[in-house]
Design brief:
By secondary structure, this protein is α/β, with parallel strands linked by helices. The chain has one domain. About 25% of the residues lie in helices and about 20% in strands. It has a 4-stranded parallel β-sheet with strand order 3-2-1-4, with no helix packed on it. A two-stranded antiparallel sheet has the order 5-6. The longest helix is centred in the middle third of the chain and has 10 residues. It is globular. Pfam families: DUF4422 (PF14393). This is DUF4422 domain-containing protein. InterPro entries: DUF4422. It comes from Coprococcus eutactus.
């Protein structure tokens, strides 16, 4: 199961049942339409202002027993390849196939011209 972590309502772009939406900070959040909320079961939802997505990871750890677990941001999904204006999002079947040969799926390594992420972003924005 891949959990799409969000803190607000958003337009779902993937319909594969292998993906579930998880609302984080649900104790202080009025967003609706998510499959799961981090304020049920064993949770630390009230700590979301300090820990952000980690309240969702804690909820997954304590309240699920899926064989495969992943998380992605509500605007950033796993994709097989990236072509401008077109993404091939990983399906549940893709993930299961990859997990037969690998223990973890990660994004491609990024290089920031010798800068840390903050320095890199400052140069782009300014």
């Amino acid at each position: 199961m891949i959990y799409v972590i969000t803190h607000k309502n958003f337009k779902k772009v993937i319909t594969d049942n292998f993906y579930k939406t998880l609302l984080v900070g649900a104790d202080g959040n009025s967003a609706d339409g998510c499959d799961e909320k981090d304020n049920t079961g064993d949770n630390i939802s009230l700590k979301n202002p300090s820990y952000c997505e980690l309240t969702g990871l804690y909820w997954i750890w304590k309240n699920t027993c899926d064989d495969i677990v992943g998380v992605c941001h509500y605007r950033r999904y796993f994709a097989d390849s990236f072509i401008p204006d077109k993404k091939k999002l990983l399906s549940g079947e893709d993930v299961k196939r990859y997990m037969k040969d690998f223990d973890i799926i990660l994004p491609h390594k990024r290089f920031f011209d010798g800068k840390n992420a903050l320095e890199f972003m400052v140069n782009i924005i300014i």
